[in-house]
Structures are given as structure tokens and as C-alpha cells.
Amino acid sequence: MRFLLKVNIPVEAGNTAAKAGTLGATIQSILADLKPEAAYFTDNNGQRAGFIVFEMQDAAEIPAIAEPWFLAFNASIELHPVMIPADLANAGPAIEQAVNSYGR
């Protein structure tokens, strides 16, 4: 299943890593292990942030995904299942059933 991982790196932890010259290398190392479909970096709530799309097959994978960010940057994360347009199209019958059951 495809997930969106939102990572917020606190300013102080990010600055410490940047000054030590390890910010980029650490992020690249974490991403190399995660093997994301896509990764985008920006700001969020005044902090360095990443929005990363990846595949996860089992909830038991969550610690391996989250802990590197926690340990390296004291980051906060959010995990959200996401769909591509084809997934949404496949969900059409379930949406229609929900409308018929609850939307009237």
C-alpha cells in the first residue's frame, strides 16, 4: 500500500545537523533505506519538512520507517495512506455503496 510520510525536523536539530555537515547525508541515507517513490522537501510550520511517498506492506514496518527520523533529527512524523488516480477509480464501487447507504 502506498503511504505519504510527512516529516517535520525541528529547527534546532536541523541547524545542528546542517552546521555539522550531516543534514543532507543523513537524509539521503534514510531515503536510501526507505526507497521512496517520490520525496519532496519544503517548509511546514516554520520547520524543515519532507513529504515522502513510499510503499509499505505491513504495519510492522512503521518503526523502521519512523525511528531513523526520530533518532537523527528528533523529528515528528505523520503517516497517511494515499491513492493514485487508478486507486481512486477502483474505489468507485465502495464510494457508490457508501452514498447509497449513508448519503441520502
Automatic annotation (TrEMBL):
Protein name stated in the entry: Muconolactone isomerase domain-containing protein
InterPro entries: DUF3303
Pfam short name (any one): DUF3303
Organism of provenance: Zobellella aerophila
